[in-house]
Write a structure and sequence with these properties.
Length: 171
């Protein structure tokens, strides 16, 4: 069995059970100011990378099912090459309310087919970057906490960071 099982039914409860500890982690990271943002990012990436490599996103696809997908104009241009009706998928008003240009409003994302992105090579930049731990992990950890109940990579990475936080006090 994988060290990082994908159990999307249990994940929200697991994340909720860790919520207070994750909040403490956030305050700890803000307070450890002898470690620069760059050094912290490097440390976080070293912890996250094996987890990212171990988790098969095609066995999960939870982000594609649950999150709004935000686009910039270049994303629309790229998608239009393979999705002739791309404009039918886009919502502008809702995106504008959160300061974005456009979003795919329908959930699950209509471009998801059997847990796989049908336009993988053409997918929006926001899909390529998710889940993005760095740069500035210290200051985006609040968003990460929100995602822990949705994304196994985020959950396991936060748990691993929590288990190794003492390393930062000995730097
Ligand atoms: S475009 Fe592809 S990667 Fe992005 S949310 Fe839709 S299915 Fe997922
Ligand atoms: S990025 Fe997270 S939520 Fe999305 S498919 Fe991968 S493990 Fe699942």
């Amino acid at each position: 069995m994988s060290e990082y099982p994908i159990d999307l039914e249990r994940l929200p409860a697991l994340a909720a059970a860790q919520h207070d500890e994750f909040k403490v982690l956030r305050y700890q990271l803000e307070a450890i100011d002898h470690v620069s943002d760059e050094a912290l990012d490097k440390w976080v990436n070293e912890i996250a990378m094996p987890i990212i490599e171990a988790i098969d996103c095609t066995a999960c696809a939870n982000c594609c099912r649950q999150l709004d997908v935000y686009l910039v104009p270049e994303d629309r241009e790229r998608l239009a090459q393979v999705v002739p009706n791309v404009d039918d998928l886009l919502e502008y008003e809702r995106a504008k309310q959160v300061g974005e240009w456009a979003c795919i409003g329908e959930k699950p994302c209509p471009l998801l087919h059997n847990k796989r992105c049908s336009v993988y090579a053409y997918r929006p930049q926001s899909c390529r970057l998710y889940p993005q731990f760095t740069p500035d992990f210290r200051w985006v950890i609040g968003d990460m906490l929100e995602g822990a109940g949705l994304c196994p990579i985020i959950y396991y990475t936060l748990v691993a960071i929590q288990a190794r936080i003492d390393e930062l006090y000995h730097d």
